[in-house]
Design goal:
The complex is a heterodimer of chains A (64) and B (191). By secondary structure, chain A is mostly helical. Chain A is 80% helix and 0% strand. Chain A has helices at 4-13, 21-33, 35-62. By secondary structure, chain B is mainly α. The termini of chain B are far apart. Chain B is globular, with a radius of gyration of 18 Å. Chain B is built from 10 helices and no strands. The chains are: A mainly alpha (64), B mainly alpha (191).
Chain lengths: 64, 191
């Protein structure tokens, strides 16, 4: 059984590569029981979305 | 085979990304603007050097990384960017977990994160959090999430293995998550 720390690595990796079947099963089993890691999954995706908005801030800040 | 034509208008489209990346890496806005200007001069001169194998953004990012290194050299400041040593070294996220792999501070639910995306102050906090990352983790993360490079391209730029790259990205994301929670979502500002 994976612990939260190991799961956090998979939650990051899945944003960059396709996880193996074994990894996906281990991840889903953990997420089914752990609410905190489910939150982290959504939050890492949100972080990606937030970074997409960052360059637009540059112009926005400058305007009066 | 002819490379796809790159015109000046295409380059302009990438300026805001390059500027943001340079500002976050150099931490001086004026210097960042100068460096990005140099990138455009080089890019316009060397357009034939664009192979079309990578995206324009990746190509410009590669030029930018060289210019940033040049800047550090000229400033006589060798910035420690040993990504390999960092990935192999002490784990920057040890403090976030207990020995048994549980979180020290249980991750909390974030209220209305989408609303934060419309708040300029949120982005200031996000940038401050990026500024607290270690050099290599910040660079790997920004190359991935700001400039949109693939892990393969990032490994090449940082001269590290794929697994080192994943380690750096993992650490950066977890530290940023914790930082945003502490400085934004758990504080009054994010509510």
């Amino acid at each position: 059984m994976l612990n939260c720390r190991e799961v956090s690595a998979l939650l990051s990796d899945q944003l960059d590569r396709r996880l193996s079947l074994r990894e996906r099963i281990g991840l889903r089993l953990h997420l089914a029981m752990c609410r905190a890691c489910g939150r982290v999954e959504g939050q890492l995706r949100f972080l990606r979305e937030a970074m997409c908005g960052l360059p637009k801030q540059h112009r926005g800040v400058k305007r009066p | 085979m002819a490379a796809p034509r790159v015109v000046a208008a295409d380059l302009e489209e990438h300026r805001s990304y390059l500027l943001k990346f340079a500002a976050l890496q150099l931490r001086q806005k004026e210097v960042a603007e100068d460096v990005v200007q140099e990138v455009f001069v080089s890019a316009l001169k060397g357009m034939d050097g664009f192979s079309g194998r990578s995206s324009v953004r990746t190509w410009l990012t590669s030029i930018l990384l060289n210019k940033i290194a040049d800047h550090h050299r000229k400033a006589g400041r060798e910035v420690s960017m040993d990504a390999l040593a960092e990935a192999d070294g002490e784990d920057a996220i040890d403090a976030l977990f207990r020995k048994n792999g549980h979180y020290v501070d249980m991750p909390q639910a974030w209220r209305n994160p989408e609303e934060s995306l419309a708040d300029r102050r949120f982005y200031e906090v996000l940038e401050a959090c990026v500024g607290r990352l270690s050099a290599a983790a910040a660079r790997a993360f920004l190359l991935r999430e700001l400039m949109g490079l693939s892990v393969e391209e990032i490994c090449k730029e940082l001269r590290v293995s794929t697994s080192n790259c994943h380690v750096l990205l993992h650490r950066a994301r977890l530290r940023l998550r914790a930082c945003l929670e502490e400085r934004w979502f758990a504080s009054e500002r994010g509510k």
